Amino acid sequence: DTPGFALVIEGDITYSGTAYYVSDQQLKKNVEDISNATDIISRLHPKEYEYKQEDYPYIKLPNGIQRGLLAQEVQQVLPDLVRDITLPAKRDTSGKILAPQAEFKGINYEGFTPIILKALQEQQAMIDSLARELAEVKSRMNNCCGSEIQYRNNGTGEYTQEETHQQSIKLSNHQQILLNQNQPNPFAESTVIDYIVPENAASAEMHFTTLSGFVIRTVALQTGKGRLTVFAQDLSSGIYSYSLVVDGKVMETKKMVKTR
Length: 260
Known about the structure:
By secondary structure, this protein is α+β, with helices and mostly antiparallel strands. It has 3 helices and 15 strands.
């Protein structure tokens, strides 16, 4: 018997049908949404490998190329998905040892499923956000630099095509507040954020947060037109937000994507 395990199988398994895992809400407590799943996934490193069958002939390790994760690396990121396993020594009826005791680590691959699902949702949210920002930029460009095709009678009974350029502006007596999208985005090591804070503002700050709302850094800003250079070599990959806060009020928030 292997301590802690109801069933231990060496070799391949084939079955038909559907496996259902106990997952009813009434059986669970301390239920919380998974956060920073994209960052978790980026810290895992899938590998291609072969098992050392010649060194462990007493364990029925599979043949050929395998793909997966290294338990020791997963343990650094998700220790609850890794478990130490001990296979007791195998003995014959007289007590003679046929195979020594084996100790190694195992991974709960099923535990990655909800993390992958959450990472896909986070990535889709980022795509949707970038798509909205792109649509907004295109709309502004069309309003600013649009054109209209008109036809004019040239007096000979024929019509000539003329292009009338149109331009829209908005006048306001309020001082401008502006927060630009960081450039480049996504970025690996550094990125730049341009902003404008009204001269009559009493205070201004830039807040950097994770998707879950955890504040990473708060930076005091001067009024007027400014540029903030962000260095993030030590920041893990993922989606982050930055907000321009003027006189204690969040004026605008944008997302930035950190890659390796």
